[in-house]
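User: I'll paste a sequence; please echo it back and then give the predicted structure.

Assistant: Echoing your sequence first, then the prediction.
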Amino acid sequence: MEQMLSIVIPVLNEQDSLKILYEKIMEQVGDKYLYEILFIDDGSTDQSSQIVKELREGDKNVHLIVFRKNFGKAKALQTGFRNAQGDIIITMDADLQDDPCEIPRFVEKINEGYDLVSGWKQNRHDPLEKRLPSKLFNKVTEKLSGVHLHDFNCGFKAYRREVVENIDIYGELHRYIPVLADRQGFRITEIVVHHHKREYGKSKYGFERYLRGLFDSFTVAFLGRFYDRPMYFFGRIGLVLSMLGGIICLYMTYLWATKQPIGTRPLLQLGVLLLIVGVQMISIGFIGDMIVDATYHSRYNEGHVKEKL
């Protein structure tokens, strides 16, 4: 059976590039694949939605989903994933920096047996103030996650359908989709893709993007290691703090037993504080394990299952 492609494109004020992008996509998929193109309008204030509606008049494989306001790229991608009907889902930006001529290469790589293929903008045509933080972000993410990719931040990716059905993204987690997929055992690789200079519009991201990305990197690192075993994280911290507090309190008890004054010593307060915080951390670990146990069956999916006979 012929494969169907779903091309998911988040859109935010890209009216000047949409028709050109559509034409370039059609050159690659029009007579080669079954396809659908999903434009997710993330609260555009220009004519982006109207242009997509015009495209749909000539091609019923073009679809449009319009948000009431700007919810962010992660929400747009998640919505696209939940509405895509294809066997292979390809995501790309609407600003013409991603080249649709790469689509057949993504499909070919998926058909080699990979579940997720990520683009690598090896020769990136962006200002230095965007390239340097991106390189730092990629290095930090690689170290924290253990997933070896050169460019986590590239939005040009291809997914087997099973991948998008078994991951949930929110906040800024769209940058960490390979990490989330790797956690479930999907096969991941990357290919070098052409990257073009932006010709229309302007970038929608500022410095705040990197701050949010930093916090989300902590979230992904935590979820990757302790998602289903929070006690391993909180329990370790609690155990260390409790042991330190216990040693200090034992020492204070010895001083008290030898008739030395301890009531005004800051070390006594530190020991008690460490004991209390340590017990609290262990308690948080227990509560976390209870939540995991209570919700595991309702959230269980078979994304980790490769084959059933």
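The first helix runs from residue 18 to 29. The radius of gyration is 25 Å.
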